[in-house]
Design a protein that fits this description.
Helix content of chain B: 55-70%
Number of helices of chain A: 8
Number of strands of chain B: 4
Number of strands of chain A: 10
Oligomer: heterodimer
Structural class of chain B: alpha+beta
Shape of chain A: globular
Strand content of chain B: 5-15%
Radius of gyration of chain B: 32 Å
Largest sheet of chain B: 4 strands, antiparallel
Largest interface: A-B, 33 and 29 residues
Strand content of chain A: 15-25%
Strand order of the largest sheet of chain A: 6-7-8-3-9-10
Number of domains of chain B: 2
Number of helices of chain B: 10
Radius of gyration of chain A: 18 Å
Shape of chain B: rod-shaped
Order of helices and strands of chain A: EEEHEEHEHHHEHEHEEH
Distance between the termini of chain B: 34 Å
Helix content of chain A: 25-40%
Order of helices and strands of chain B: HHEHEHEHEHHHHH
Largest sheet of chain A: 6 strands, mixed
Chain lengths: 232, 311
């Protein structure tokens, strides 16, 4: 599904923010991406959602080398990825409904199909009464739920979420994590960047730990718990 | 979608003319409409000027190309003044000589009053020209004009009297046609400049719109939107604005042309009034379509070019 081989990333002529990253995510896997602030989580996520290309190394997504991929193929590949951005990145002039509907419109679904799917998902995330409302009038938690709904509406093969439960109370946070697990059971590969120890402990999925631009993959929660203490 | 329109409360989305990018609310939209309206108006004026020059050229050339004037000078080759009777007799001989020519439709001798009327603008209305020696003039209408015909006519006429002159209007006609041609080229050049300015202005407006919404465009890309998906939205937006602008420009242009037609005189023998033929009118009415097409195609290539430079 995703394979990073000796991947490095630098911005301009600055130092490498990611260096020699190597990992493989199998289809249908569920990982947490964690590490201290400034460790490069968002940069690694941007490489995974094809927001930028690595300055060195090889990135393979869905069995395709993305380093030299043309724009049209990149677009097709991005349609298989759902992203929840840390800052939500909702389009402020579109209603909650239209924001969530965007991935379906981009992939050319019929309006009738879009309406039923989006209505159902907005109900599910508790925003059924807010579908015609503009994002700026929603609270941070509500905006986050819209962003999550937008990321999952097209049933992506890979879901990347950057602190998706950061603005939510525990109840809604856990509920959304269950949504992610449900998607995972249906075959979606999931990577969630989070600082939340409680979420990681409760769900116990393997962790990708970033520290000072290098990545360690930890399959066993107990090992991570033991070693991650020192990082924070 | 109509459910949104009914609800005008603050914070409620209005789905009218939905775009993924906030193009409807861009401040530059009105500027683009005004700009296109002005360009359409100027293009209409330049095109109308071209049509008018075509009409004038046609009017002059059709009036003069198949005609010539035969002048019987007021004095003979030795400088002796001819009497009115001499001139009338010579005129009659010339008319009789021209009678058998098949390429001549008519040969009409102008009366003294008609000749006086012709020269009076050059000498002044107040001057008495009744006693002035005036030449005899014969206006000849041809059904075809070629050098052989002109030569045989000239030979026949100068056989009557060597000093009789034949004016084929060629020099004057050529000068006037050259001037009209230059003016037509200038008007076409102005139309071309207007077209290029329109393209540049639309491309600039599209580029600034894309810079304004760069983050949103990037987001659409990250969600898998192809370049064409984004291009179609900006292209549609540019098309709607150029259609609106060009219709306003067309309306203003038609109003001015209508006014000029009303104020102009169709009786003026030199400058015919600005009355547009059906093909010319259709040409002007097609201008908004042409300008909208320019807007559409310019937007398409500009957006694709800018997107190609994005990561």
């Amino acid at each position: 599904m995703i394979k990073f081989e000796h991947v490095g990333l630098r911005y301009g002529i600055g130092p490498e923010v990611l260096s020699d990253i190597n990992f493989t995510l199998e289809p249908g896997s569920f990982h947490f991406l964690t590490g201290p602030s400034g460790a490069g989580k968002t940069s690694l996520m941007s490489l995974m959602f094809l927001g930028r290309k690595p300055t060195r190394g090889l990135v393979t997504m869905f069995d395709q080398n993305v380093n030299d991929m043309d724009r049209a193929k990149l677009s097709k590949l991005r349609q298989k990825i759902g992203v929840v951005f840390q800052e939500f990145r909702l389009l402020p002039h579109l209603s909650a409904f239209d924001n969530v509907a965007l991935p379906l419109r981009i992939t050319g679904h019929r309006e009738s199909e879009i309406k039923s799917n989006v209505d159902e998902l907005l109900e599910w995330v508790g925003l059924g009464d807010y579908k015609n409302v503009l994002p700026l009038t929603l609270s941070g938690g509500q905006q986050q739920r819209v962003a999550i709904a937008r990321a999952v509406i097209a049933r992506p093969k890979l879901l990347l979420a950057d602190e998706p439960t950061g603005n939510l109370d525990d109840n809604i946070g856990f509920r959304l994590m269950h949504l992610f697990e449900q998607l995972n059971r249906m075959g979606t590969t999931i990577v969630i960047a989070t600082h939340s120890q409680s979420i990681m402990e409760k769900f116990g999925h393997p962790r990708l730990v970033l520290d000072a631009g290098t990545l360690h993959v930890h399959e066993q929660t107990s090992w991570v718990q033991k070693n991650i203490e020192g990082v924070y | 979608m109509s459910r949104f329109r009914k609800n005008k409360r603050l914070g409620i989305a209005d789905s009218k003319g939905r775009y993924d990018l906030p193009l409807n609310k861009s401040a530059g939209s009105n500027f683009m409409i005004v700009l296109v309206a002005l360009m359409t108006f100027l293009a209409m004026m330049a095109l109308s000027a071209t049509f008018l020059l075509n009409s004038v050229t046609h009017h002059w050339s059709s009036g003069l190309e198949n005609s010539l004037t035969i002048e019987i000078p007021a004095s003979d080759a030795e400088g002796k003044l001819r009497t009115q009777d001499d001139i009338a007799a010579l005129s009659k001989r010339v008319q009789d000589t021209l009678q058998p020519f098949a390429e001549i439709n008519s040969a009409t001798a102008l009366s003294q009053e008609e000749i006086q009327e012709l020269v009076s603008p050059w000498l002044g209305e107040d001057l008495s020209i009744g006693d002035m020696p005036l030449p005899g003039l014969i206006s000849v209408e041809l059904n075809s004009r070629n050098p052989e015909n002109l030569k045989s006519i000239t030979d026949a006429v100068t056989a009557i009297a060597k000093d009789i002159k034949i004016d084929t209007h060629e020099t004057w006609l050529n000068d006037i046609l050259r001037l009209a041609g230059t003016l037509k080229i200038s008007a076409s050049f102005v139309t071309l400049i207007i077209g290029l300015t329109t393209i540049t202005a639309i491309a600039g407006a599209i580029r600034s719109r894309m810079a304004e919404h760069r983050d949103d465009i990037e987001l659409l890309h990250l969600m898998g939107a192809s370049d064409m998906y984004i291009t179609k939205q900006l292209q549609r937006h540019a098309l709607i604005l150029t259609i609106k602008g060009s219709i306003f420009g067309l309306g203003a242009g038609l109003a001015i042309i209508g006014l000029m037609s009303l104020l102009g005189s169709s009786d003026n023998p030199v400058m015919p009034g600005l009355s547009l033929s059906i093909p010319n009118t259709v040409g002007l009415l097609l201008l908004p379509i042409a300008i909208s097409f320019i807007g559409w195609i310019t937007a398409r290539f500009t957006v694709l070019r800018v997107l190609g430079q994005m990561p």
